[in-house]
Design brief:
The protein is an alpha+beta fold and about 300 residues long. The chain is built from twelve helices and twelve strands. The protein has two domains: about 15-105 and about 240-255, no CATH class; about 115-235, Alpha-Beta Plaits. The strands form three sheets. The chain has a six-stranded mixed beta sheet with strand order 7-8-4-6-5-12. The protein has a four-stranded antiparallel beta sheet with strand order 2-1-3-9. A two-stranded antiparallel ribbon has the order 10-11. The model has no long low-confidence stretch (mean pLDDT about 95).
Length: about 300
């Protein structure tokens, strides 16, 4: 392993790291189109995804990235294009050399109106809210999902999977049986006009009442509070992959997305421990970390 896994040959390149963690994600990302968010210093963040830039799967990423390819990326694409396969060109454009990139994927596939294979909740936190508060809310959410008889009658079989994002938390329900796309609008989509009409709104209200945490359902990030956001569930939406880098800006990595067990949400110093992870530490512990991902 290089001393600096984000600069394996002396210049910033996230692809060595994403190739290595990608090997642990074949099951979790099977059949899911990859996406990325490229951070441009002084410019916008650019989303690369299958519906616009050609489909890319994790197996293709892992198989196409070797030492020779990484060394070619020290030069410009124009200079080395003839030495690359079409898949390597696509990987290059998804994860630009000398740029930091998030690792995303299409939660329930690209395109609208597809069946729901996994339900996704983002416990999004405003910068004023401590991540420990997000941990408390995530623990409460998991308990509410487990205990909600109405929900579990509608969704009887699933694997529940919490994840640290590098800043806050996600909760996945990996379904044993697909749900129709209209399930999202009927049961999960949050409405300001009828906040208690969805499971999302009711669970957020119960967390607020029980724990005194400022939290609401929805997609919009609001100052000084948490948002319980299921809006990346429908097909055509994107979610952060386990082990993705998390950036504070275009030049700095401030965290790594890490899979968790439900029991870990009870740990008092969990956030402190999760914040200690560097990309190098992730690769060192990858054989153990991957065991937390249900497939």
């Amino acid at each position: 392993m290089p001393r600096d896994v984000l600069a394996p040959f002396g210049k910033l390149d996230v692809l060595y790291y994403y190739r290595e963690v990608g090997k642990a994600l074949f099951g979790f990302l099977r059949g899911k189109e990859l996406a990325s968010r490229v951070w441009i210093p002084g410019g916008p963040k650019i989303i690369k995804r299958g519906s616009r830039h050609g489909t890319l799967y994790v197996e293709q990423l892992v198989e196409s990235v070797d030492e020779e390819f990484l060394k070619l990326r020290l030069r410009s694409l124009r200079e080395v294009r003839e030495k690359l396969t079409e898949t390597q060109v696509r990987v290059w454009n998804y994860f630009l050399p000398r740029k930091l990139c998030d690792f995303f994927y299409a939660t329930n596939g690209e395109g609208e109106g597809k069946a729901i294979e996994r339900i996704f909740f983002d416990i999004d936190r405003a910068k004023e809210v401590k991540p420990e508060e997000a941990q408390r809310a995530t623990k409460a959410l998991v308990e509410l999902i487990r205990e909600d008889e109405e929900f579990n009658a509608l969704v009887p079989e699933y694997k529940l999977f919490p994840m640290y994002t590098g800043s806050s938390f996600h909760v996945y329900l990996l379904l044993e049986k697909e749900l129709p796309p209209e399930f999202y609008n009927r049961y999960l989509r949050f409405s300001k006009e009828a906040p208690l009409a969805s499971f999302t709104g009711r669970w957020a209200e119960k967390i607020r009442s029980a724990l005194g945490i400022r939290i609401t359902g929805g997609h919009e990030k609001l100052a000084k509070q948490l948002t319980l956001d299921p809006s990346q569930t429908p097909s055509g939406k994107l979610a952060r992959a386990p082990f993705s880098l998390h950036m504070s800006d275009a030049k700095n990595v401030d965290g790594v997305a890490l899979p968790l067990s439900e029991d870990m949400l009870n740990e008092r110093r969990l956030v402190e421990e999760l914040r200690s992870y560097s990309p190098e530490k992730v690769l060192e512990e990858l054989p153990e970390l991957r065991k937390r991902i249900p497939v």
